[in-house]
Amino acid sequence: MPTSNSNNLSRRSVLALTGGAAAFAVASPAAAVTPAQGTALVQKIINEILAITNQGGSDAVVLPKFEKMFDRYADVPIIAQTAMGAPWRQASSSQRRDFIVAFRGYLARKYGPRFRDYQGAKIDITGAQDRGSKGVLVTSIVRAKTIPPFE
What we know:
The chain is mostly helical. It contains six helices and two strands, in the order ααααααββ.
């Protein structure tokens, strides 16, 4: 589906929303250890994402809010280190710090506009499973205005 029309959601937009929420939860320093905690954490993140997208506003207002969410729920330094790959080992501490700051901004600029595609959407958590050492898997269904519901 084309993404140029804000009424159409592409598969990439869908993956951005669910992947972005998963990135918050999976890399979270406040990671859940039980299905109930996983459900509560994912619901909290969904509520915050939808609150930001539903209030609207310019990028200058919205993107810093997403940056704060990444700081709160995701281990941005570890994600940045993984994204940089092998060059991380040769980078100085100031280069690493600068990269983390730049990467945090990149995440907000990349995912923030994608989350806006879900203005007015409803996301219902449908279950949670303890996957042992792999963590807790929380499943949901997304109900957006312009596409059929999907898990």
